[in-house]
Specification:
about 450 residues; alpha+beta; hpI Integrase, Chain A; 3 domains; 16 helices
Length: about 450
């Protein structure tokens, strides 16, 4: 056997049915393993004092170079020669780790970006903040002292039931901003999802042997169905005009209006920057969203709302904070005050997003088109020129106009909307039929 080098490690091919190995010809017991998935890791193989064959993974190829791995292997094999069993020692350490210690490892590793989340990217700060909250509020108070080695599937499902009943929040101390958790099925299900994911990361990084949450059954959570009807949108608009005259925060009211006109998420609206908006292409370019980089089409009413905010403003944010250079943050409180005055219950920023989608459905647009408008589908998400997708432009224009009409006191669906086709539009019969589904929509040639 030849000496292990980067070249022969790179050349090692995976086997679809089993693991493959190559061993170093210079240092006996040192080698590299490739799994059927294609992942490669350095390891040592030796016999312990009981003459049993043991393997110890040193680390993944790519993180470790061949030279570093060889030095680590030499050190571990020296320990073996001295009568030690490094594999058993590692297992003993893992067996003694508590749930709290695993959670702390996860948070530290995710903080520095060594754990990859969705789309194989480092976990976002906003997601990590939620994970940290669930760990501190629910996981640690209930099972933080338990050993991972003794954790069973039933223990995790019992924790889920306790969270749903509100048992964890009785002892957890409130930290940071936001309201106190009251438990419930939704909170319990999301907490279990977080716990299962972090244990999966720990198993993949060889911190624990297996993920004890594999196969856990999460509580079914009823989908949120609250939306604003036409009359409620009109009442919300009338109340917004009334409170604006009485001194309610104009930036917050404009942000609420834009959420309704676009279906954007709360932080997509509040963090919106003027340079991301293109009137020519009817779109907003988001460098980063919950689903990554996206381009979203918007209607004329939404563009007008944005331009009203940015005209003469020195801030890079469409909705700037009153003090400092950051964006506005108090929209939820203002929305609560406005809805209380309008006698509208259960209205959140997500309800505004759902209302936009529901209005689009009422107007006859397809689920695929609505998903594209909301950023749920690939359609229209990564195109460089969003105006080439005429169906999305038509839908955004029609839906935003309908909602704007209702907000401003009109009845909606009263007039034919003529949407001009910019140069470069590729409109076929299918797109025309999709456009016709939007009540009163006609695509006409540009002048």
């Amino acid at each position: 056997m030849a000496k292990l080098t980067k070249r022969n490690v790179d050349a090692l091919k995976s086997n679809a049915k089993s693991e493959a190995f190559i061993w170093d010809g210079e240092l006996r017991g040192f080698g590299v393993r490739v799994k059927p998935s294609g992942s490669k890791a350095f390891l040592i193989q030796y016999r312990n004092a009981e003459n049993r064959t043991r393997r110890l993974v040193l680390g993944p190829y790519g993180v470790l170079t061949v030279e570093i791995a060889r030095d680590m292997a030499r050190q571990r094999l020296t320990e073996v020669a001295q009568g030690k069993d490094p594999s058993a020692e590692r297992q003993a350490v893992r067996a003694g780790m508590t749930v709290s210690e695993i959670c702390d490892w996860y948070l530290e590793a995710a903080e520095v970006g060594t754990i990859l989340g969705r789309n194989r990217r480092p976990i976002k700060a906003s997601s990590l903040q939620m994970d940290r909250s669930r760990i501190a509020t629910h996981i640690k108070p209930l099972i933080g002292s338990r050993l991972i080695s003794g954790l069973k599937l039933g223990d995790i499902e019992t924790m889920q039931a306790d969270i749903a009943k509100g048992k964890s929040v009785k002892t957890a101390k409130k930290k940071g901003r936001g309201g106190r958790s009251k438990g419930g099925a939704g909170v319990a299900s999301r907490t279990i999802s977080t716990f299962r994911a972090l244990l999966g990361h720990a198993a993949r990084h060889n911190i624990i042997e297996t993920n004890p949450a594999t196969g856990v059954r999460q509580l079914a959570v009823a989908k949120r169905k609250r939306r604003l009807g036409a009359a409620e949108i009109g009442r919300l608009g009338a109340t917004m005009r009334e409170v604006a005259q009485n001194g309610e925060h104009p930036t917050a009211l404009a942000a609420i209006r834009l959420m309704l006109l676009t279906g954007f998420r709360r932080m997509e609206v509040l963090g919106l920057q003027a340079e991301w908006v293109s009137r020519t292409d009817h779109c907003v370019y988001f460098p980063d969203t919950k689903s990554g980089e996206q381009v979203r089409v918007v209607g004329e009413a939404a563009i007008e709302c944005i331009e009203a905010q940015t005209t003469g403003s020195p801030s890079r944010f469409v909705f700037p904070a009153d003090i400092g250079t950051c964006h506005f943050i108090g929209v939820v409180r203002v929305l609560s005050r406005v809805c209380a005055k309008a006698k509208l219950e259960g209205v959140t920023p997500h309800v505004l997003r759902h209302t936009f989608a529901s209005v689009a459905g009422d107007l006859g647009f397809s689920e695929l088109t609505i998903a594209g408008l909301l950023g749920h589908a690939a359609r229209g998400v990564t195109q460089n020129y969003i105006h080439l997708d005429a169906a999305l432009v038509v839908a955004a224009e029609r839906v935003s106009l309908e909602i704007a009409t209702l907000l401003d006191g009109g009845q909606g669906s009263l007039s034919v909307v003529h949407i001009r086709r910019p140069p470069g539009y590729r409109v076929n019969d299918a797109v025309e039929r999709e456009a016709e589904k939007g009540a009163g929509v006609r695509i006409v040639a540009a002048r």
